[in-house]
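Re: beginner question about structure tokens

> Can someone show what the tokenized structure looks like for a real chain? I only ever see the sequence side.

Sure, here's an example I had lying around. Input first:
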Amino acid sequence: MKKSLFSLILLSSVGLSHCAAPTPNDAATPNAPTPTGEVTGMTDAELKALASSYTESLMAINTELQPSNIHGSRVKTLLDKTAFEAYTNKQFPYADQTVSVKESHGSANGPIERLYVMKKIKGYDSANGDWFYAVMSTDGVASQKGKVSFCISCHTGAKAKDYLFGFE
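And the corresponding structure tokens:
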């Protein structure tokens, strides 16, 4: 009897080891639907990575800083390669996973003060073109992110161009 009780306890403890907290490899894939079916936006880690590398992977649609009353005194807008081609050819809607980064400068010669990010994520916000928005510092710390009502209210004015400005 002692042996069988010991075996039962041993087997139980081995079985419980499989109930440990998930490892990083078990973490949900960013932008994948949650168990409730909700599609998530960009994670803080993704935003930080984008802030540190966007100049290497995105293409500028304007070489000279452009005036902007909403995004700071002057702005430069960058798009991923696929979006840049769509922008150039005026082909809408943009592809899923399209990324746009707008650099905000306080003056024509000033440093970058803030980044405005848009990422198209299929199923994220169908009422507003499936765009995720983020307002963040140059080091990738978001002060606002997600379905940012201020961003949505303005970008609705460019609905015919899949919510991106710049063709005027």
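Each token stands for a local structural state, so reading them left to right follows the chain. DSSP finds four helices and seven strands in the chain.
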